Amino acid sequence: MIENEQHVLVIFPHPDDEAFGVSGTITSYIKKGVPVTYACLTLGEMGRNLGMPTFATRETLPVIRKEELKKAAEAMGIEDLRMMGLRDKTLEFEDDEDMKKLVADLVDELKPSLVISFYPGYAVHPDHEATARAVVGALGEIEPDMRPALHAVAFANNTEDELGKPDIVHDIRHVQEEKLNAMRAHISQTARMLEMLDEGLERNDPEALRWVQSENFYTYKWGDEG
Q1: What is the DSSP code string of 145-156?
Q2: Could you tell me which residues come within 8 angstroms of residue 52 by beta carbon, excluding any fewer than 6 positions away?
Q3: Domains and CATH numbers, the chain
């Protein structure tokens, strides 16, 4: 059950982070009339796939991924897409205070009741972890009664051993096509994975169905909350 929210702020570092992890949830909120802002910190300009034969260079890939991000936002129904202009694969080297301020400024402006991002320590990629640290750092400075909830994506191998099962599971079967369209929008980096996913869906493979039937989150627990 996806509950009503005042405003949802989604913060991820790369184009396609949102599509694979939370696009069904985003679409569900938008269909309920909840405003959603997506702040994408980079344009994924260091993405691995330049094509065989080559369809892009390091100079042109950011342009391609920017357009793909716009298409993904359109597929989900997002009207407020923020491209924050940081550089892919360098977020771990950004000043932590600057990253925290970037998040704090968004929260101050938008006054979200819910923030969606990665869970620190369980997000695998250095850019993911830097984003998670910034989000937790910024929200942690807000008084508990004013602080938005944080629903965090975690997928490290040790996640369930240490955090248990996700406490939030959203049924997204009603927006399956929107999620697939958001994933397809990022085709430059995801073509092979999407091909495998489509094959799995045709066979009703449980692993493939998992991608389009539910999205899981952990409610971040704050030390100053009772």
Answers
A1: TTPPEEEEE---
A2: none
A3: 8-219 (3.40.50.10320)
